[in-house]
Amino acid sequence: LEAPTAITSRISPHDTRVLLLLVSGASNRAIADQLGVTPKSVEHSITGILRTLGIDAADETINARVTAAVAGVRPRSRAG
User: Fold this and answer.
1) I need a labelling partner for 48 at 20 to 30 A (CA). Which of 11, 16, 65, 79 fits?
2) CA angle, 50 as apex, 46 and 55 as ends, to 5°?
3) Exposure of 40 by Cβ count < 10 A (0-12 exposed, 13-18 middle, 19+ buried)?
4) CA 55, CA 6: separation in Å to the nearest integer?
5) Distance from first CA to last CA of the chain, Å, rounded?
6) In b/e form, how buried is each residue of 10-37, taking b as 16+ CB within 10 angstroms?
7) Contacts of 79 (CB under 8 A, 6+ apart)
C-alpha cells in the first residue's frame, strides 16, 4: 500500500509507516512489533496522525482509527 502524497507530505516517514500498517488493520501491538517500537510510541504516532488529518479522536460519532485508515487509502482527487 502507498499512502497518498497529500498525507505523507505532512507526516514523518515513521508516521507514514504507522499509517500504512493501520490501514492494513494491524493493532497497536502488531504495529509496535513490526516497527520495533513500544505500543506507547505507536499511540503517540497515531495521535499525531489524527491531529495532522484534523480528526477529533474525542468525537464519539466516528471511529478515529477507521477514519484515519480511510484517509490513508483514499485516492487523491485529480484536477480536470
Assistant:
1) 79
2) 150
3) exposed
4) 15
5) 25
6) ebeeebbbbbbbbbeebebeebbeebeb
7) none
- Among 21, 18, 16, which Cα is nearest to 3's? 16
Q: How far is CA 24 from CA 20, 31, 59, 61, 63, in A?
A: 6, 10, 23, 23, 16
Please report the beta strands in the chain, taking only residues with DSSP state E, as ranges in sequence order. Answer: none
pTM: 0.81
Q: Which of 17, 51, 49 is nearest to 35 (CA)?
A: 17
The pLDDT tens digits of the residues spanning 1-36 come to 455 667 778 889 999 999 999 989 999 999 999 999
Q: In the chain, count of helices (H) and strands (E)?
A: 5, 0
